[in-house]
Design goal:
By secondary structure, the protein is α/β, with parallel strands linked by helices. The chain has helices spanning 31-44, 58-70, 84-94, 111-118, 122-138, 156-169, 187-198, 200-204, 220-230, 251-260, 262-265, 276-287, 308-316, 344-353, 360-376, 382-401, 440-454, 502-518, 521-527, and strands at 12-15, 48-52, 75-81, 101-108, 144-149, 173-178, 208-213, 234-237, 405-414, 417-426, 429-437, 462-471, 480-488, 491-499. The termini are far apart. The structure holds zinc ion.
Length: 528
């Protein structure tokens, strides 16, 4: 079969939310979440999804295996270092889905990384990269992407040498990472231009050059767009720009800049931009962090106009102060919100639409919660449903495992001090206690701690590190989302809880964090 010629103006979007994105603290998510995200990315028509780094954890292995087998319409990529064990692990995860999957092999190429991290000479690094690519090919995969990690701090002549060697060895995509967000001005696009001019195999083998930027100086999107203008044809991005430190390139910014300024770039992506908003909200609910109000394209403020002159202009003609329409990016809630009038059938259909297959027992529980919520909050959005589902799944899991669960919570306030009463259960034991504090977080923390300490269920010096609360979507009766971070020694865990009552939300967040901490595999041994 003749190879289809690549459209020279088509930019491939490579989403790495489930790999690089989730490496940011507190953003971890499991295989079920990755599958949910994969279906949504496929709906949005992302070209490639990096689903994980299989050798790094069982969860990543499982996420890659499931995305490769269960999600049609998207190429599943998985990360490997340049060694046989990593590559074998990726191959095992791909299994018989190898033909529609991509392996992403990386090795560090900057002096500081080669010397300090790898302890290898430049020649050894090239040899390892070439051997790894050839080994992957011998395992039966031909869709191979190669990354010289920290490329932007790699001397150009060595970079050109390893790029050429990787291309000759069989890599079809070469990704040039700005791993630490170091590139400024024209450095990054110049690197792309020079590689295209000086490494002849790139043109000869129709190799796709790819971009991977970090936002340490706020330049990830700018560098990515400059790289595309210079001739690269794939961009690594994450949803809402999540990622280590200051994050990765925010997918929606690149896609909407190319679309809005097609006259300038003359480049296209395959993205269905109407799914940008729903995808942003899904990721926000998975990681339990709100979308920042001013985050470009998807933030709550990007189509809100508060000054009189702007309001007047926008009412007469949106184009006066806006360059894209909210309809085009799915900025508003995607489908009709549910209400207390919504029946079981409609509710079940909506759950399926946003990615939850539920059995009869779970459905009963979550439907009752939905009815309770709808009684307090006239419109129930998909974001609320994600929270209900995640909470229900976590509670059921805690019940099965004998972890801590909340039975009841009550409180009163006297002279500015709050007294909170909680009832908890774990391993068929029931604990009750009260605690006081000025704010909802310290009062509920003190109540939960004294309930568990009384029953010798408290594993040691757990510290409440940080907490915050934000408002869910939907007006005055909105749901409060409480988030906490706790730690035991050098290990930290996160928890989240939501409720229309903030004291209940805080209590739920503490319990979720405690369950995550106490039951983390690395701590379980130490504690028991
Ligand atoms: Zn990265």
């Amino acid at each position: 079969m003749a190879k289809k010629k690549r459209d020279k103006n088509r930019v491939l979007i490579f989403d790495t939310t489930a790999r690089d994105g989730k490496q940011s603290p507190g953003c971890n998510f499991g295989p079920d979440d990755t599958i949910r995200l994969a279906h949504q990315l496929a709906r949005m028509k992302v070209d490639v999804m990096e689903a994980g780094f299989p050798v790094s954890s069982d969860d990543d292995f499982e996420a890659v295996r499931r995305v490769a087998h269960e999600v049609p319409g998207i190429t599943c990529a998985a990360l490997a270092r340049a060694n046989k064990d990593d590559i074998d692990c990726v191959m095992k995860a791909f299994g018989d889905a190898i033909k529609r999957s991509r392996i992403h092999i990386f090795i560090a190429t900057s002096d500081v990384h080669m010397e300090k991290k790898l302890n290898k000479s430049p020649d050894e690094v090239i040899r390892m990269a070439v051997e790894a690519i050839k080994y992957a090919q011998a395992c039966g995969i031909d869709n191979i992407e190669f990354s010289p990690e920290d490329a932007s701090r790699t001397g150009f002549s060595f970079l050109a040498k390893i790029v050429a060697a990787a291309a000759w060895a069989g890599a079809r995509t070469i990704n040039i990472p700005d791993t630490v967000g170091y590139a400024v001005g024209t450095e990054y696009p110049n690197m792309i231009l020079r590689l295209m001019h000086e490494v002849s195999i790139i043109e000869r083998n129709d190799i796709v050059l790819s971009l991977h930027c970090h936002n340490d100086c706020g330049l990830a999107t700018a560098n990515t767009l400059a790289g595309l203008a210079a001739g690269a044809r794939q961009a690594h991005c994450t949803i809402n720009g999540i990622g280590e430190r200051a994050g990765n390139t925010h997918l929606a910014e690149v896609v909407m800049a190319l679309k809005t300024r097609r006259d300038y770039y003359k480049l296209d992506t395959g993205i269905n931009t109407k799914e940008i908003g729903p995808t942003a909200r899904l990721v926000s609910s998975i990681i339990g962090k709100p979308i920042h109000d001013t985050l470009p394209i998807v933030g709550a403020n990007v189509h809100a106009h508060s000054t009189g002159i702007h309001q007047d202009g926008v009412l007469k003609e949106r184009a006066t102060y806006e360059i894209m329409s909210p309809e085009d990016t799915g900025w508003q809630e995607e489908s009709l919100p549910l209400s207390s009038q919504s029946g079981r059938h409609g509710f079940k259909q909506r759950l399926a639409y946003i990615g939850y297959e539920v059995n009869a027992k779970t459905f009963g529980v979550v439907y009752a919660k939905f009815k309770e919520l709808a009684a307090m909050k006239p419109l129930v959005h998909n974001t609320d449903l994600h929270m209900l589902m995640q909470e229900t799944e976590a509670e059921q899991h805690a019940e099965e495992e004998g972890w801590i669960r909340l039975l009841n919570v009550d409180y009163h306030k006297l002279d500015g001090t709050r007294r909170v009463f909680v009832g908890l259960t774990a391993n068929d034991n029931t604990f009750e206690a009260s605690g006081t504090g000025n704010g909802p977080f310290d009062a509920t923390w003190s109540a939960v701690r004294s309930a568990l300490t009384r029953q010798k269920f408290w594993p040691g010096e757990i510290k409440l590190e940080s907490f915050d609360v934000s408002k869910g979507q939907g007006g005055i009766e909105s749901v409060g989302i409480a988030r906490v971070k706790i730690s035991l020694g050098d290990y930290a865990a996160f928890g989240r809880g939501s409720d229309t009552d903030i004291v209940v939300a805080c209590t739920k967040a503490h319990i979720a964090a405690l369950n995550n901490l106490i039951n983390a595999p690395i701590l379980r041994e130490r504690i028991s």
